[in-house]
Amino acid sequence: MTLLETLARGSGIIAAYAAVGVILMIVGFYVIDLATPGKLSQVIRSERNPNATLLATSAMIAIGLIVAASIWAAGGRLSEGLASTAVYGLVGIVVQTLAMLLFDKIVGISVRELIKEQELQPGARLLATTHVAIGLITAVAVI
Fold first, then answer.
1. 57 within 8 A of 100, measured Cβ to Cβ
2. Residues 44 and 56 sit within 8 Å (Cβ to Cβ)
3. Which H or E element spans position 99?
4. Under 8 Å CB-to-CB from 104, ≥6 apart: which residues?
5. Residue 66 to residues 6, 33, 44, 86, 91: CA-CA distances in angstroms?
6. What is the C-alpha to C-alpha distance for residues 105 and 98, in angstroms, rounded to an integer?
7. In the chain, what are the domain boundaries?
8. pTM of the model
9. Tell me: the pLDDT tens digits for 29-76?
10. Of 29, 65, 75, 76, which residue is most buried, by most CB within 10 angstroms?
11. CB 71 within 8 Å of CB 48
């Protein structure tokens, strides 16, 4: 295989994984949007709400960790890697969502209430840390 062929193949693989990763991040964003009052992009862009921004950002980091671990675990097997990235990414999104619901019901930290606050709240920091931790746990489980 020539250098040009190797670069072209590698670029195609990167583009395929990036596409799956971006799709997962969009899905994750809209799942958080369902859990928050108002349109999340509007709350972040226009209202500049730090709690909404932190929760969305931490979810994206968590999904990125899962995607990276899935790529690593695939060991160069593209079809398996893309499929596992999609499945494990969706599992991570579901687990993050369940964690938010559990924190609301058991601990009493409501995402809906946090988003109403205009100053960064400790509960948002806790939920953001939970997102990243779940992403890390899922990522390590994948490896």
1. no
2. yes
3. helix 78-102
4. 110, 111, 112
5. 26, 20, 24, 10, 10
6. 10
7. 17-142
8. 0.86
9. 998 888 788 898 999 999 999 999 999 999 999 999 998 998 899 888
10. 65
11. no
CA-to-CA dists, residue 136 to 1, 61, 64, 132, 139, angstroms: 36, 9, 10, 6, 5
* Cα 56 to Cα 33: distance, rounded to the nearest angstrom: 9
Integer CA distances (angstroms), 122 to 49, 94, 118, 127, 128, in order: 14, 23, 12, 9, 10
| SS3 annotation, 105-127 | HHHCCCHHHHHHCCCCCHHHHHH
CB burial readout 119-132, b (16+ within 10 A) else e: eebebbeebbebbb
65, two tokens: 């960790």
* 131: its two tokens: 């997102």
